[in-house]
Amino acid sequence: LSSISCSGIVLRVLFHPKQLLLFSSCDDGEVRIWDLVTKSCVHSLKGGHMSAVPALALSPDGWHLLSGDRDKVVCVWDIRNGARVVTVPVFEALEGRGGLFGDSGWWWGIGLLVVVCM
After folding, report:
1. pLDDT by residue (tens digit) across 22-47?
2. How are strands ordered across the β-sheet holding 31-35?
3. What is residue 85's three-state secondary structure?
């Protein structure tokens, strides 16, 4: 990619461990999925966040992305089609340090734990 475009500042990037994909989040509330082969944006994940998104994590199977924003919201996205699966209020602003997952559901670790049962 020559550049990761966004109307604001790119806050976090995350590489997919098995696919040639890159995830980026911005201070404008958008999360994007980039195809590293075609060097293009394949999904722009909009509508889940109203503020900066400093936290990203990928599920162990690699098919779901979690994004956390400063407005106290975590979204789960299906990266195959860009659809939002669920939105969860977390009652605390999030700053990104990655995420953790458990076998019985989704675990998001950024100074607090949130469980989203699938």
Report:
1. 999 988 888 999 999 999 999 999 88
2. 10-15, 21-26, 31-35, 40-45
3. strand
Q: Which of 44, 48, 57, 55 is nearest to 7 (CA)?
A: 44
Considering the entire predicted model, what is its pTM?
0.77
CB 106 within 8 A of CB 100: no
Cβ atoms of 28 and 35 closer than 8 Å: no
- Amino acid making up residue 64: H
pLDDT of residue 79: 95
Cβ pair 93, 50 in contact under 8 A: no
Q: Which token pair is 7?
A: 């109307």
Decide: 59 and 68 in contact? Cβ < 8 Å.
no
